[in-house]
Amino acid sequence: MNYDRVDAHILEVVQKNNRLTSEVIGEMVGLSSTACQRRLRRLRSEGIIEADVSIVSAKAVGRPIQMLVLITLERERADIIDKFKRLIKSSSEVVSGFYVTGDADFLLYLTAQSMEDYEEFTRGFFYGNPDIKGVKTMVIMDRVKLGFAIPIQMPEED
């Protein structure tokens, strides 16, 4: 995946606000609206821009309990890992899931309506799964920073 300095500038802009029109983005980076649209379309088709999303407040939609959960699998075998990845992807309660190194195998970000709701979820999702060796839950007290902006590496000038 290649991108140039103009693409890098576009990426910085859309990470802060992806609702800007291509006309506004183009003005900010020195392009016409049409040229900006072409670059955005290419950045999306090449997978450099993976998604355009809105960040929804969990609290505002009735899911104020937020947790980070560390999962340790019983055995680290490819079939067990792949099966657990599919389980993560199929769960609406799991907002984000990461296969990680270190003391745990997976890190999950979950939301729940209440602790009772989370307990019910854990009984089915974690404790009913024989491939899971351990679960450590950390309840989020305060979200200090939220974002998905990746620092953009400026390409070398030719």
UniProtKB/TrEMBL annotation:
Gene3D superfamilies: 3.30.70.920, Winged helix-like DNA-binding domain superfamily/Winged helix DNA-binding domain. This is ArsR family transcriptional regulator. One of its GO terms (biological process) is response to amino acid. Keywords: DNA-binding, Transcription, Transcription regulation. One of its GO terms (cellular component) is cytosol. Residues 3-64 form the HTH asnC-type domain. Pfam families: AsnC_trans_reg (PF01037), HTH_24 (PF13412). It comes from Rhizobium esperanzae. GO terms for molecular function: sequence-specific DNA binding.
